[in-house]
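Could you help me review a protein record that somebody else here produced? This is what I was given.
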Amino acid sequence: MGQVVVITGVADGMGKEAAKLLAAAGDCIAGFDMNPDGIAALQQELDALSAHNGAKHYLTTLNIMDRAGVQAFRDEVLARYAQVDTVLSNVGIGFFGPFEETDLEAARRCLEINVIGAASIFQAFLPGMRQRGSGKLIAMSSLVGQVPFPFESIYSASKFAIEGMVMSLRYEVAPFGIHVALIEPAQVSTSFASKIHQLPPEGSPYRERARRFIARDDELIKTAPTPQQAGRRIAEVVRQARPAFHNQIDFMSTVFLFLNRFLPRRMRDAILLNHMDIK
């Protein structure tokens, strides 16, 4: 048997594609999502793969905000497979809108799911990895975890928090043989952005720039990596014994992160505003 890999947010998109690729390579997949239809569909696909290579899998419907449910999931996975080699925190939601007009209760939910959700799944499996002296914790971050985009202040905050949390965690767990990594996509051609892109109401001072931002983002998504391409890159990182700490999926995010590190802020800002058509 290959690795035992835990994946959250596995019902569709990048998480689903990565799970299928890893299962096809012989890895055991344990995952959950709150979308029961997506879980049922993936179950059928993994059953078909298992018939060929014998790779095992355990999928369930679960909300990452259910702390007791996450602990019960951990207990079931360890009862079935004894250990977990890699945890991939992939669950997350988007958030779009001018900061001034943000519903802070909705913002709280985004931060809870994106940041504390990742913390809860890592914390659940960390003791077993520490006791065994090996394991990998991989968090799905984003380009906006280092390069904040306008109208994505809350989402950027959640990804900045993930980056800081994982950077700090790396120092704590390295002495126990646990490797920590980030995956930082820019855009992937899924419905992720379209679900959150809503224009500010008529009369909002931000409406016109937000409209141009959405139009530009919709154009960029047309040429963004597909979930299958992103899944291949994610699976590649998961399979590495010692993955790099920062991992990008596409050329755009690599370029933006390079520019962010070396260009003066005024020049970086000009490039970003030009790129998103919101000068």
